[in-house]
Amino acid sequence: MRMDAFTGALILNYFLSSAFHLFKKIGRFFHIPQEFLNLPLKDMEKIAGKEMALKLKNWEKYFNVEEEKKIMEKEGIKGIPYFSPYYPQILKEIPDPPLFLYVKGELESNSWRQCAIVGTRTPTPYGKLVAHRLSSQLASRGITIVSGLARGIDTEAHKGALECGKTIAVLGSGLMRPYPCENKNLVEQISRKGAVVSEFPLYTPPYRYNFPRRNRIISGLSAGVVVVEARKRSGALITAHFAIEQGREVFAVPGKVDSPVSEGTLALIQEGAKLVKDWKDIWDELVNLWGKPEENIRGDNFSLSLTPEQEKILSLLTSHPQHFDVLVRKTNLSPQEFYFHLFQLILSGKVKELPGKFYIKVE
Description:
The chain is an alpha/beta fold. It folds into three domains: 1-63; 114-290, 3-Layer(aba) Sandwich (Rossmann fold), CATH 3.40.50; 308-361, Winged helix-like DNA-binding domain superfamily/Winged helix DNA-binding domain (Arc Repressor Mutant, subunit A, Orthogonal Bundle). The chain contains 17 helices and twelve strands. The protein has helices at residues 5-16, 23-26, 33-37, 41-48, 50-57, 65-75, 89-92, 125-139, 153-162, 184-192, 210-220, 235-245, 263-270, 279-290, 308-316, 324-331, 335-348; strands spanning 78-81, 100-105, 114-119, 144-147, 167-170, 194-198, 224-228, 249-253, 274-275, 322-323, 351-354, 358-361. It has a nine-stranded mixed sheet, with helices on both faces. Strands 10-12-11 form a three-stranded antiparallel sheet. Helix 10 links the parallel strand 5 and strand 6. The protein is elongated.
């Protein structure tokens, strides 16, 4: 078959997806991948090793490239190789850029107005609310939110951004095997208002070792990375460390000092990450890099759309302080559910917390 550059990139990327250590060695061929595949076997062995060189020379035994192309066309998935003018310029600047991107949706090729929000898969109600709110507020001001589609903080970041702006999900699996499964509908929403991206061939399972690689793309696509709750050893911290290596800004949301999911964010702050109290802390830092993004749907006064539970809580509150336990009993919610909604009201400025777990309505 005729080996053009696009086909060469698809084939070479298929093998690099299981041999990440070869990225730097083969990197100089990213503009002309078909030339690497056409090297004499001995020359190829010097670069890729004997075993990989033999596989590459017999690639048709392992990879049906025409079938991959057919599925991409059927599913509306674009292929963007490194040499394409549509390849994101921001991603070309990292040490190990992916050779090939599978994209469902629209991925801007020349935008720095992107910020990652990542964190633990097991967040507290506080963490979920902060991630959702920061994402929504930044997205409403023209910043595309990048995250990894994982359970917990990543999911909240995508959902918050979808309320009024764009988001990019970077997968640790192929686009035909999105993970986790419960986010399948979210994937479709994101592809309509942003992009779902992966460097892995279409049906690649979510292998554990894929996710650290995925994280370098999350930070690589972003001008800054915000970590909202993370344990000491977590994927979110890997993303933050990639960001540091790539020269990106790193932000961290503080949490309770005795909470396991605050250990990572507090450590980042100790190491010099910018502490985030609200969206303006992120905004001010990023605006210095590329000027003020155009605001779209919402202005500076972020309006909270109340849920029935929040309306009920607000109706119970007055200027007279009431204790947390008393309010919980009046609502018939569990303490966890009650605090989830109460905290959002506090963030919106509609409720004020007083010492001793007492609360009042802000008139």
